[in-house]
Structure formats: C-alpha cells, structure tokens
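User: 50S ribosomal protein L31. Structure?
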Amino acid sequence: MIKKKIKWISNSIVIFNGKILCLIGSTKSKLKIDVCLLNHPFYSKNKAISNSEGRIEKFMTKYKLTTN
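Assistant: Predicted structure:
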C-alpha cells in the first residue's frame, strides 16, 4: 500500500472567536478552535456552574422518574 505524502505547513493560522490567535505547524492551513486557555474554565478561574437543573427535570419528566 502506497502512503500519501502529508504536506506540512509551518505557518498554519489558528483562529479563535473570528480572530487570528497564533501561527503553528500543522497539516492544515487554517485551524478553527472553540476552546482555548482564554475561555476554558480551568485556566480562567471561572467557577460558573452550568444550569443543569432544567435538563435534569426534563429527563426525569420524560422517563417518568421521581426523586426521593
């Protein structure tokens, strides 16, 4: 089996939130990311807890379950 030669791009653009974040080496010319150290809760020390109560109640109602 013949392997396809992978083209390495040394100045790939990393895009976050519509803006160029940095340049890195990659096999793709443009990389779009959703999470980085700027918005990740671990790195930003954001202690916000997602509102999962509505989702839990919806699940409980859907499957006709009760909490004790």
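The beta strands are 9-16, 19-26, 30-33. Residues 9-62 form one domain.
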